Amino acid sequence: MRNSFLLLFLTFAFTSAWGQGQAKQNCEDPQTQLEMNICAAEDFKRVDAELNKVYKEIVSKLEPNSKGLMVKAQKSWLVVRDNHCGLYEQFYQGGSIMPLMLYTCKTELTQNRIKELRMILREVTEE
C-alpha cells in the first residue's frame, strides 16, 4: 500500500516537473510508455472522481441504517480493488509498464463499481 502512495506521489511529482511549459498531455494517441502511464493515471483520477460523486449521491439519499451498510460496503470494496490491483503492481514491479497496468486495473474495476452504484442509485431514487 505504501508503495502505491509512493508511486502515485513520484508519478505526479515527476510529471508535474516534466510537464512545466509543455502542452497538455495528448491522451488520444500516447506514443511513449511515459505518456501511456500519465494517461492511465489521468483516466483513473477522472473515473475515481465519478465514483465518489455517485457514491456521495447515494449516501445522501439513504436512511441511517442503510447508510451504515453502504459505507461499510464501499470501504470493503476499496480494499478488494486495491489488493486485487496490487497484484499487478507486484507482477510488473521494476518495469516501466507497471504504472500503466496498475492504473488500468484500478480504472476498469472502478468503472464496474460505478455501474453497480448507479443501479443502487436508481433503486434509492425510485423509493
Automatic annotation (TrEMBL):
Establish whether keyword Signal is in the entry.
yes
What Pfam families does this protein map onto?
LprI
Instruction: Give the domain of life.
Output: Bacteria
Q: Where do transmembrane segments lie in this chain?
A: none
Coiled-coil portions: none
Cleaved signal peptide residues: 1-19
Q: What is this protein called?
A: DUF1311 domain-containing protein
Q: Which organism is it from?
A: Pontibacter cellulosilyticus
Q: What is the lineage of its organism?
A: Bacteria, Pseudomonadati, Bacteroidota, Cytophagia, Cytophagales
